[in-house]
Write a structure and sequence with these properties.
By secondary structure, the protein is α+β, with helices and mostly antiparallel strands. It has three domains: 37-109, no CATH class; 115-224, Alpha-Beta Complex (Lambda Exonuclease, Chain A), CATH 3.90.320; 234-274, no CATH class. The chain has eleven helices and five strands. It has a five-stranded mixed beta sheet with strand order 1-2-3-4-5, sandwiched between helices. A hairpin with a 2-residue loop joins β1 and β2 (131-143). The two termini are 36 Å apart. Bound molecules: iron/sulfur cluster. Iron/sulfur cluster is lined by residues 19, 21-22, 232-234, 237-238, 241, 243-244, 247, 249-250.
Length: 274
């Protein structure tokens, strides 16, 4: 029998739906899950944008973001996560440039000086249905009388097929905010930095759909922990799974995909079976 976690977050629920075995490695066995370089670029960009949006609107300029990035960099560069990347000088320069492009990409999609920011990095901890839920909302904005949930994304805007998960996650934030404030946010926005905003109307039907996923994941996690059975769900995502070396089914999936030419060359795990 495995220990069931005390709550679910949007990312842990999505991780279980994607692959219960991967979820077990991360949330039960707590195997090291090193943040990859791309994820850390996003972490740093999030931090700078958080600081920027805590300032008053007219102070949210590109120059202010540069100053904040310089200040925040000292602490970030000293973190274990960043140091563990072991970047050489050229790679470190490329990392900083990539992070800056993500930060500056905010101005490609909106002018932050015109945004009525209510809060940044807001923790929400509520019961959603019967599921204990905890999440951190990147930004809550006000538009007129309405609240808007905004979520920064530093990765590439996914194709239609892969957007559903992201939309469900942001709907869970909207549901949590509704539960805390008694008012349903009118919109949820995925801010793909430097690309575009996915602006989604928050409806009760969309929230209910996300809550159904959350409840189902919670019930299945309960069963999986009780029986200690966490099925692998091999897919193209095995190419991005940090636990593939501990997972025979995932490794077999990678080998099959490489042989069939169906694994993107930039998948981090591709090198393992090349
Ligand atoms: S390698 Fe694939 S099947 Fe195995 S745990 Fe990771 S995602 Fe799941």
């Amino acid at each position: 029998m495995a220990d069931k976690p005390p709550y679910l977050s949007p990312s842990s629920a999505a991780a279980f739906v994607s692959c219960p075995r991967r979820w077990r490695f991360k949330y039960v066995d707590r195997l090291p899950d090193p943040s990859g370089r791309a994820a850390l670029v996003g972490t740093f960009a999030h931090r700078v944008l958080e600081l920027l949006c805590q300032d008053e609107p007219r102070g949210r300029t590109v120059d202010a973001a540069k100053d904040l990035a310089r200040t925040a960099w000292e602490e970030f560069a000293a973190s274990d996560d960043y140091r563990n990347l072991e970047l050489d000088a050229d790679e470190a320069r490329a990392f900083r440039w990539q992070a800056w492009l993500a930060i500056a990409g905010l101005w490609d999609i909106e002018d932050p000086a015109t945004v009525d920011v209510v809060s940044t990095e807001q923790k929400v901890q509520v019961e959603l249905g019967s599921v204990p839920f905890v999440g951190i909302i990147d930004r809550v904005d006000r538009m007129g009388q309405d609240l808007v949930v905004s979520d920064y994304k530093s990765g590439t805007l996914p194709g239609y097929r892969w957007r559903h998960d992201k939309i469900q996650q942001v709907m869970l934030y909207a549901a949590a905010l509704q539960s805390e404030t008694g008012k349903r946010p009118s919109r949820a926005r995925l801010l793909y930095l430097g690309q575009r905003i996915l602006d989604i109307r928050v409806t009760q039907a969309r929230i209910d759909n996300a809550l159904a996923m959350l409840t189902e994941a919670w019930v299945e996690i309960d069963q999986a922990c009780g029986s200690d059975q966490f099925e692998p769900r091999p897919s193209v995502l095995c190419g991005w799974c940090p636990f593939v070396e501990q997972c025979p089914e995932g490794r077999a999936e990678l080998v099959a995909r490489v042989e069939a030419g169906r694994l993107p060359a930039h998948a981090p795990s591709a090198a393992l079976v090349a």
